[in-house]
Amino acid sequence: MRSAAGGRVRLFVPWLAVTPDAQGLAARITSVAKVRAVRVFPRTGNVIVWCAPDRLDLDQLVRAVEEAPPAATPGRPARRVPQSSTGEITRLLLGGAVLAVVALRRLLRRPKWATGSSGVFGLATIVTGLPFFRGFFRGVTGRGHTGTDALVTTATAVALLLRENVVAITVLWLLNIGEFLQALTLRRTRRAIEELLTVGEERVWLLCEGVEVEVPLEEVREQDVVVVHEHHKIPVDGVVVSGHALVDQAAVTGEALPAYIRPGSEVYAGTVITSGSLQVRATSVGPDTTVGRIIKRVEEAQADQAPVQTVATRFSRRFVPVSFALAGLTYLLTRDARRAMTMLLIACPCAAGLATPTAISAAIGNGARRGTLIKGGTHLERAGAATAVVFDKTGTLTAGRPLVTSVVTLSDDVSAEQVLALAASGEIHARHPLAQAILRHTHERHIEIPVHQACEVVLGMGMRAELDGTRLLVGSPALLRHHGVELTGDGRAWTEHLRDRRESVICLARDEEPIGLVGVSDAIREGSRSLIDQLHVLGVRRIVLLTGDTPEAAQAVADDLGIAEVHAGALPEAKLQLVRDLQAEGHTLAMVGDGTNDAPALALADIGIAMGTHSSHVALETADIALAGNDLQQVAAVVELSRHTLRVVRQNYALALGVNILGLLAGAGGSISPVLAALLHNASSIAVVANSARLVRHSPSQQPGRPKDR
């Protein structure tokens, strides 16, 4: 139960959003309780019941709504499994089956294989490693780059030449698993984007000759007038022709507070009416809406992103051809195939192949321990090269929800606690975020809220309530003026002072007397200023605040945090353009955001970072790095971790390269045998793994260049 006063009860029913049986629930409430009216809102899970106060039985109401109907028992709808190619599944199954047979035979102590088993292993190896072999031959023929595929092919060939068939197929099977997981992640991203395209309303109310007619959303065309009621999503982009409402536009504009919409205002598909109702003339429908364009921009940004050459790729391109050339030259000069084979064995780039993935895996595990999900080594590498960082404001640098920051009393007879109690009494049934902030703050301070006898919403202004024979007005200064109440000189001065601090002002009047003010603002998240300082210390040259909020609100946050560059009022396409402009200036750009409206910019940026578990699903899927918590310090920690990881990777390559060069020289001179070459090769691999393992316990706070905690 959310609230109960004056014969009006608000209930929250969790299963209602899953099984939107509005009519059935209303009928059940009516049958078990003596009520005058019931309104059910499936999208928000809210139920409002009106009844005579003396006939109110709360226990009976709660029992009526607490159990979901039988059809709702399964809870969540089944999720569609992403489609996978037949080739991927075949390679995984074949490799897994062969390795399972090997394991079973060894378990049964049957090491000997029947005649022809080598052919089976060879066929399984070819099928399992086909994508890598193709990539290698494309590189050899000039249709691609000789890089990672050459590493895999070379390692496989050496293993087969040494009759290590099980080793060859094991390596290829594990690599196929990695490729499959990467493809699965991409499919999940695409599915999240597709789900975003649905604005949440499969059927809408169309106004036809003054009559509301329910039709499928796909039948709506431009210039049609749709009617949207409270708690429903607006299904089209358009212009309001009738009605007034508060609309939550955070998904598109990033504004922290709902906007007051009146005739002539523009509205966007996917935004939600929190109070009121509207008639909207459609100007864009389906994929042409703002939400549809967001999806298109995300897909374009992901397609346009230039492939980054990782350290492993650059190293292998140079080293693999050199190794083959030296082995061939040795054979031509000595005609000793054994020496050439020894050189290939010592030069087999297993240690080089382990240099990057082991370090990256350790670093990703390090980040995961601190609540940072890094979706791949390429993203980790780029994070360390960031020269510019763009921050979204709402929900990233700020808490993303309004908080009470000031309470002012305008009467000697009224204390600050009484101002809060009376304001909360007037706002107890309001759903506006400012009202919820007052109620939340009052509850947190354990202040008792008096129960009013009647209340009325004055749309766009506030609430009017009756309390113990007095009239309460809680809302904007315009509400007081509308009822003939004027603020005193002191009240006007405080109002201007709070607005100068970028706080939204809620006025409180009792009968004809203004008695208090409450200031509410979207508070800056703890650690924001420290983060900006840390990024400067780490050498990030340009920090930008980018938001769809008003210029005044954006500048206030920028001033508090010491950010010099501000771009306000930016819709998703404007955010995307700013990212392009910064990249054109030569910056390696990190974008930090949390909303659907940030998704295109997160996708196009060199490093996209989604902030916190409250981030929209699409933002989390699109971003390269996701922060599980709300600790902003992790943004700087990721940059530092990336740089330290690259130092470890370079150490690994120096180690691998040193062993390979010494081995090549010794092998060319005939100083070592193939057995010793294999031992050196394994030793270098173990040393690389041990060096990378140090990253698991690395702590960014211990590194130089990071401000010490005070």
TrEMBL record:
- Transmembrane residue ranges: 120-137, 157-181, 340-365
Membrane topology listed for this record:
Multi-pass membrane protein
Q: Which Gene3D superfamilies match?
A: Calcium-transporting ATPase, cytoplasmic domain N, Calcium-transporting ATPase, cytoplasmic transduction domain A, HAD superfamily/HAD-like
InterPro entries in UniProt: ATPase_P-typ_cyto_dom_N, ATPase_P-typ_P_site, ATPase_P-typ_transduc_dom_A_sf, ATPase_P-type_domA, Cation_Transport_ATPase_IB, HAD-like_sf, HAD_sf, P-typ_ATPase_IB
Origin superkingdom: Bacteria
Query: Where primarily located?
Result: membrane
- May I ask which residue range the UniProt record assigns to the signal sequence? none
Q: Which Pfam families match?
A: E1-E2_ATPase, Hydrolase
What keywords sit in the KW lines? ATP-binding, Cell membrane, Membrane, Metal-binding, Nucleotide-binding, Translocase, Transmembrane, Transmembrane helix
Boundaries of every P-type ATPase A domain copy: 201-299
Transmembrane among keywords: yes
Q: What is this protein called?
A: Cation-translocating P-type ATPase
Q: Which NCBIfam families does the entry mention?
A: ATPase-IB_hvy, ATPase_P-type
- Species of the source: Saccharopolyspora taberi
Compartments (UniProt record): Cell membrane
Q: Which family does it belong to?
A: Belongs to the cation transport ATPase (P-type) (TC 3.A.3) family. Type IB subfamily.
Asked whether the UniProt record includes Chaperone among its keywords, one would answer no
